[in-house]
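Throughout this chapter, every protein is written as a compact record of paired, labelled lines. The reader may check this reading against the record printed directly beneath this paragraph:
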Amino acid sequence: MLSSTGRKLEKVGKSKAEPERVQRAKLLETKAIEAYRHLCTALGNADDVEDRRLAINVLNRLAEDRGVAPPQRVARHADRDREGPQR
């Protein structure tokens, strides 16, 4: 029963979200992805190899979960990390 009205709950989660809520959720997701990409760009440009690896791991996770492609700049650092130090 719904405590405030005394009615029985007949359905849960079967109604569609209002278009404004869907639009807002998509906007927030886009902003979050952009923030992660900005963070990964900063980490990808770091001197520390571990920071660059973290950027790659975060971008890989975004690619798995949301289909986000890594920025080209981070991808170049990934190649440099795999090759090892230059002699």
In short: Residues 19-44 form the longest helix (26 residues). The CA atoms of residues 18 and 71 lie 33 Å apart.
